[in-house]
Design goal:
Elements: E1 5-9, H1 12-24, E2 29-32, E3 49-53, H2 61-77, E4 83-86, H3 99-109, E5 115-118, E6 126-129, E7 132-135, E8 138-139, H4 158-165, E9 170-173, H5 175-179, H6 182-194, E10 199-202, H7 207-217, E11 222-225, H8 227-237, H9 242-252, E12 259-264, H10 269-279, E13 284-286, H11 289-294, H12 296-309, E14 318-320, H13 325-335, H14 337-357, E15 360-366, H15 368-377, E16 382-390, E17 393-398, E18 404-408, H16 417-423
Parallel strand pairs: 1-3, 1-4, 2-3, 4-11, 5-10, 5-11, 9-10, 12-14, 12-15, 13-14, 15-18
Antiparallel strand pairs: 2-16, 6-7, 7-8, 16-17, 17-18
Helix pairs in contact: 1-8, 2-3, 6-7, 7-8, 12-14, 13-14, 14-15
The chain binds adenosine-5'-triphosphate and the ligand O=C(O)[C@@H](O)C(=O)CO.
The ligand O=C(O)[C@@H](O)C(=O)CO is lined by residues 11, 13-14, 17, 88-90, 226-227, 368, 392, 409.
Family: Belongs to the four-carbon acid sugar kinase family.
EC number: 2.7.1.217
Domain Four-carbon acid sugar kinase nucleotide binding: 261-418
Length: 429
């Protein structure tokens, strides 16, 4: 097997996000949830891209570097022509973060001296102007990300953030140069590299810019950034085939025949709106936190029987822990934030695995941590990635062909996401 692109992703839903964009640009893509499971890939499986999903965003630097290098070796064994290190479109990495050290280690292992840093994802309103990252039109450090519990972002300047973490200097490529096209960007990259600059940070204001950057960077051994640049590079690689391949991905997608369920453990603003909407069109049960803590087994049985009572042809029933921020804070004060998170994630994981034993084959899960816990409990070593339901959220099928799974990052998708996931499978390219 030889791969056109190999991706190392620093978190779980981030991996699914980029995998969906690669498919939408026409690459047949598999996501591996356990890096070692590359050896389980069927010999005859036609794959253009492999995305290895790690959980290295907020762990110790040494471990993040070590795990990323291990993933690199697996991708090299699969003959990956180019490597993309995927991190968050909101960077999610403070001065102590791992993006710089991992990029440095990958550069060294690939014997390269410079790379591009492209977190922008304009379709989800994450843009870069003069090297500053904006989320929905406001600078990163003024967006909700300034309150992130693990990686509070207090700076929007990507050059400063990168230089604080890495071993080299960074330089912006302003949008005036990007507007001139891929040759101008390529020249800017060459000039920067010969000046000893290690990280090139181009402006990214719209999808045209992603196309230009994809074209300019498609021959670099290492590119870093979000799913947007993955899409840009994949489109550069498949320019002529893309439309046909996109249609083929959507045409091929058929749901498994079993029942479905929606499990929402995300407490984000968008998920709150999505849960509110879905409750008005489908059966839904809010998780009772005291019973999760004190009566989990009996409570799971009760919810399981309730889920299985819904006729399989109806919209899938929803079980949700999702609450508004004030209520979340008050629950966390009463029970302890970490304990509660662990208990709720564990509850969803066990519920998912029991539902699977009782014939549920289609899972829609909201929340990055919740998705990780559920996927692990379902023992899914990898996914074949299908068409996107919304930008950054594709349908996936477990490599054993038994389960359909959609994993939604907290803030992705629009208000009707949960219903849309079940009624239409169009590709957002
Ligand atoms: N009602 C609740 N009370 C306490 N904790 C909750 C509640 N609902 C959800 N949680 C916890 O909040 C955390 C939400 O994290 P998760 O990563 O799943 O969602 P998210 O942060 O919205 O998504 P993403 O990381 O993709 O943006 C989980 O650990 C979950 O168990
Ligand atoms: O890039 C993004 O915004 C997401 O894929 C992500 O990384 C979620 O954690």
């Amino acid at each position: 097997m030889s791969l056109r692109i190999g991706v190392i992703a620093d978190d779980f839903t981030g991996a699914t996000d980029i995998a969906g964009f690669l498919v939408s640009a026409g690459l047949r893509t598999v996501q591996l949830n356990r890096p070692g499971s590359a050896r389980d890939l069927p010999e005859d499986m036609a794959v253009d891209a492999v995305v290895i999903s790690l959980k290295t965003r907020s762990i110790q630097r040494d471990s993040a570097v070590e795990e990323s290098l291990r993933a690199l070796r697996i991708l090299q064994d699969l003959d990956a022509e180019r490597i993309l290190f995927k991190y968050c479109s909101t960077f999610d990495s403070t001065a102590e973060g791992n993006i710089g050290p991992v990029a440095d280690a990958l550069l060294e292992a690939l014997e390269e001296s410079a790379t591009a840093m492209v977190p922008g994802l304009p379709v989800n309103d994450r843009t870069v102007y003069r090297g500053h990252l904006f989320v929905e039109g406001v600078p990163l450090h003024e967006s909700g990300m300034r309150h992130h519990p693990v990686t509070p972002m207090t700076d929007s300047n990507l050059m400063r953030l990168t230089e604080a973490q890495g071993r080299g200097t960074a330089r912006n490529v302003p949008c005036g140069v990007v507007n001139r096209g891929s040759r101008a960007v390529h020249e800017a990259f060459q000039e920067a590299a010969s000046d000893g600059v290690r990280y090139l940070v181009p402006d990214t204001l719209d999808d045209n810019h992603l196309d230009v950057l994809g074209e300019a960077f498609q021959d670099l051994r290492l590119v870093t950034g979000g799913s947007g640049i993955g899409w840009g590079i994949a489109r550069a690689l498949t320019r002529r085939e893309a439309a046909g391949a996109r249609r083929a991905a959507a045409d091929r997608w058929r749901f498994t025949s079993g029942r479905g369920v929606v499990l929402s453990g995300s407490a984000s603003e968008m998920t709150n709106r999505q849960v509110d909407h879905y409750r008005s069109v489908a059966p839904a049960r809010a998780l009772e936190v005291p019973r999760v803590l004190d009566d989990a087994e009996a409570y799971r049985r009760e919810l399981r029987e309730w889920v299985l009572r819904t006729p399989p042809e109806d919209l899938a029933p929803l079980v949700y822990a999702t609450v508004e921020p004030e209520q979340l804070k008050s629950l966390q004060r009463r029970h302890g934030a970490d304990e509660l998170s662990r208990a709720i994630e564990g509850f969803f994981a066990d519920l998912a695995s029991e539902l699977r034993e009782h014939g549920v084959t289609r899972f829609i899960v909201a929340g990055g941590e919740t998705s990780g816990a559920v996927t692990q409990a379902l023992d899914v070593s990898g996914f074949e990635v299908g068409p996107q339901i919304a930008p950054g959220v594709p349908w996936t099928r477990s490599v054993d062909g038994e389960l359909d799974i959609a994993l939604k990052s907290g803030n992705f998708g629009d208000v009707e996401f949960f219903r849309a996931a079940q009624v239409e499978v169009t590709t957002h390219a």
